[in-house]
């Protein structure tokens, strides 16, 4: 089994020696951070609405940084983290008139902020505020960098596909019950159909050009597998809000089973994520979109364009994930729930929109 290189083009973590991989972690073994990350993913919430983290140790912080595309042992990456904090402090002061306590704005290293944001103290709120703004600035900088880099989408997609596939080979080799794993890229014909069927006809709103499909053996394997994905390569903070389609996992039941866990956000939603209108009745699946970080400074290293991607530079690749258990995957291909019927319903809607004419009285 091949091992992941320490400096891959993505932010994918190899299996940890002290972590079970046979079925991941059961719900009873999830810590608070695990639970809240999965809840955010299932509901399509935004981390900007959180008022605290629930990390427990420095190891938790290092794992989260690596999943977000930072290597804590790399001085350039740590300088990048400090620069993000400096810019966040400047924004908060100039634009919002908020003065951040010097302990978290300058005195302690930026690496300390996630644990401060997780523990009760007078500095907790300011640390959390800083991390939210740093999160947004990092994402904006990555989007701006993407516009100037001479890297084709196909190269970035290939980097994500290679790293995710390698990781799942490792996990399956360790016993994780993934019975089917596949990936695909949306064809141009599919993109045209999707843009014609949606009210938003902007190609930037197509989130699922790169897709991964996972089928696990049993329904009880779904949450542990999601937990492993979040711990290895999906930054929970870059799960795209409002783009989760969850007809698979009962979030209300999950919350009742974890009712003693301290909340991290004030819940103002109705708890019902959007569903796909073209899915057949009874179709059950979990679809979500995440922005996965790719280290472009490493892709461009030793090329004439290396200067365009400063050390520590990251861009994001929007990626769709579909997760389902084997029985429901089989049920989903029956009758009106089949993919063929789904595509047919889409095509009927597109034909209606394209052929729609004026009311008859306007023809007179």
Strand-helix topology:
Elements: H1 32-43, H2 58-67, H3 75-96, H4 102-107, H5 113-116, H6 124-148, H7 153-173, E1 178-185, H8 188-197, E2 210-216, H9 222-232, E3 245-246, H10 251-257, E4 286-295, H11 296-299, E5 314-325, H12 326-331, H13 339-355
Helix pairs in contact: 3-6, 8-13
Description of the molecule:
- The longest helix has 25 residues.
- The protein is 43% helix and 11% strand.
- It has 13 helices and five strands.
- The protein is globular and about 65 Å long.
- With 364 residues, the protein is of the alpha+beta class.
Cα-based radius of gyration, to the nearest Å:
22 Å
Order of strands across the widest beta sheet? Answer: 1-2-5-4-3
- Overall 3D form: globular
What class, by secondary structure content? alpha+beta
Largest sheet: 5 strands, mixed
Q: Report how far the terminal alpha carbons are from each other.
A: 73 Å
Strand residue percentage: 5-15%
Uncertain regions spanning at least 5 consecutive residues: 1-24
Average pLDDT for all residues: 81
Specify the helix fraction band: 40-55%
Query: What is the element string, with H for helices and E for strands?
Result: HHHHHHHEHEHEHEHEHH
How many H/I helical runs?
A: 13
The number of E-state strands comes to 5
Descriptive key words:
364 residues, alpha+beta, 5-stranded mixed beta sheet, 13 helices, 5 strands, 11% strand, disordered N terminus
